[in-house]
Amino acid sequence: MVKLVKRTLGGGICMLNIETIKTKAVPILKNYGVNQAYIFGSFARGEQNQDSDIDFLIEYDPNADFSLFELVELKYALEDVLQRKVDVVTEGSLSKYIRPSVLKDRKVII
């Protein structure tokens, strides 16, 4: 299990790993109607550092009324609970150039 030591604003240290991310992020993801979620990028590969953001790939019920505004709200809610910059994308929004590496690296959260 890879752990990242992150300095908090108050000068303390907290451990951030995939299990901690799951514990904190899953309730928020479910609250926004996300059916499936993955982490990809440096956290998924175990190459994160203290400046790394957390990249989420999400899927939601296609019948749900999920707007761009809700996607932005979800991003901010995740950043608030994780105390780290977050990117949230859907599979449909992935560029054809990065799609293969995202799908290869992704780790299941939900």
Concise synopsis of the structure shown:
This protein has 110 residues and is of the alpha+beta class.
Structure description:
By secondary structure, the protein is an alpha+beta fold. The chain is 36% helix and 26% strand. It has four helices and six strands; from the N terminus they run ββαβαβαβαβ. It has helices at residues 18-31, 42-45, 68-82, 99-105; strands at residues 4-7, 13-16, 34-40, 54-60, 86-90, 107-108. The strands form two sheets. It has a four-stranded mixed sheet with strand order 5-4-3-6, sandwiched between helices. A two-stranded antiparallel sheet has the order 1-2. Helix 1 (18-31) runs antiparallel to helix 3 (68-82). The longest helix has 15 residues, at 68-82. The two termini are 18 Å apart. Mean pLDDT is 88; it is low at 1-13.
Give descriptors for this structure:
disordered N terminus; single chain; 110 residues; four-stranded mixed sheet; two-stranded antiparallel ribbon; DNA polymerase, beta domain protein region; magnesium; 36% helix; alpha+beta; Beta Polymerase, domain 2
CATH topology (level 3) name: Beta Polymerase, domain 2
**Beta strands, count:** 6
Give the distance, in angstroms, between the N- and C-terminal Cα atoms: 18 Å
Question: Strands of the biggest beta sheet: in what spatial order?
Answer: 5-4-3-6
Helix vs. strand class: alpha+beta
CA-based shape = globular
Strand content: 25-35%
| Biggest sheet overview | 4 strands, mixed
User: What is the number of helices?
Assistant: 4
State the domain count.
1
CATH C-level category: Alpha Beta
Which radius of gyration do the C-alpha atoms yield? 14 Å
CATH superfamily: Beta Polymerase, domain 2
Residue ranges: pLDDT <50 for 5 or more in a row?
Answer: 1-13
Amount of helix:
25-40%
CATH architecture descriptor: 2-Layer Sandwich
- Secondary-structure element sequence? EEHEHEHEHE
Q: Calculate the mean pLDDT score and round it.
A: 88
